[in-house]
């Protein structure tokens, strides 16, 4: 058990260092969703899970290195699993808006995916989307020639302008819209408690197995 606890401390220490390293270069306050596993109640539940796995693996393998490697592998598996699944575990909200239009989502929302669709929601190919975007960009750009002096010196360079309304109208005329799937801010805590419950359930099962294994050894 001592070796298991040591393995757990190493893995949890690595977890904390990694989180601090990345948070120092990224804004956690503006994007808490990106640190879903390492914040609030789920972070504590995850740490308890790692400790329970480290203890059980030390009882099974009776080797510190094996316990450490087992805990490390589980660390990666859980991080990958939760990171992949939490954005879509609960059905996200969807909205269709004109391509290029400014969309205001509730502050703190998590954008799950964006795709180009028709107004009725039919998904469009990337080839068609890129062609329409290129065409509409050219149409929305205009050039105003600068003046040229009598001495032959060039005046101001042509100035390019971009007309947003022309761009949006062009995209809509080609039936090109954007489908955005997102999670509302309050879903953050819903998902936190769902994953915390699952993590604590797994921890309880592992702890029970550890006690059964210890009693078996004593017998």
Helix content: 55-70%
Number of helices: 6
**DSSP summary, beta strand count:** 5
| Distance linking N and C termini | 18 Å
> Class by helix and strand content?
alpha+beta
Range of strand content: 5-15%
| Shape type | elongated
How would you characterize the largest beta sheet?
A: 3 strands, antiparallel
> Within the largest sheet, what's the order of strands?
1-5-2
| Spans of at least 5 consecutive residues with low confidence | 23-30, 143-159
Look at the structure and give the mean pLDDT.
78
Rg, Cα atoms, Å = 27 Å
Secondary-structure element series? HHHEEHEEHEH
Characterization of this structure:
With 219 residues, the chain is an alpha+beta fold. 56% of the residues lie in helices and 13% in strands. The protein is built from six helices and five strands; from the N terminus they run H-H-H-E-E-H-E-E-H-E-H. The chain has helices at 2-23, 40-61, 64-85, 126-140, 164-173, 187-218; strands at 93-98, 110-117, 141-144, 159-162, 177-183. The strands form two sheets. It has a three-stranded antiparallel sheet. The longest helix has 32 residues, at 187-218. The chain is elongated. Mean pLDDT is 78; it is low at 23-30 and 143-159.
């Amino acid at each position: 058990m001592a070796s298991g606890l040591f393995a757990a401390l190493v893995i949890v220490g690595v977890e904390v260092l990694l989180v601090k390293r990345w948070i120092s270069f990224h804004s956690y306050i503006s994007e808490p969703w990106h640190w879903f596993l390492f914040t609030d109640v789920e972070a504590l539940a995850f740490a308890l899970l790692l400790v329970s796995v480290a203890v059980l693996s030390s009882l099974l393998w009776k080797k510190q290195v094996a316990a450490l490697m087992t805990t490390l592998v589980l660390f990666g598996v859980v991080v990958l699993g939760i990171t992949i699944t939490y954005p879509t575990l609960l059905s996200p909200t969807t909205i269709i808006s004109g391509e290029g239009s400014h969309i205001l989502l509730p502050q703190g929302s998590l954008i799950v995916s964006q795709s180009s669709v028709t107004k009725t929601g039919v998904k469009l190919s990337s080839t068609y989307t890129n062609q329409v975007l290129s065409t509409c960009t050219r149409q929305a750009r205009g050039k105003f020639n600068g003046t040229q002096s009598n001495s032959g010196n060039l005046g101001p360079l042509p100035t390019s302008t971009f007309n947003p309304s022309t761009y949006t109208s062009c995209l809509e005329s080609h039936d090109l819209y954007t489908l955005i799937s997102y999670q509302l801010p309050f879903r953050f805590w819903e998902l936190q408690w769902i994953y915390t419950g699952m993590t604590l359930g797994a921890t309880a099962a592992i702890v029970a197995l550890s006690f059964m294994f210890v009693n078996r050894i004593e017998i």
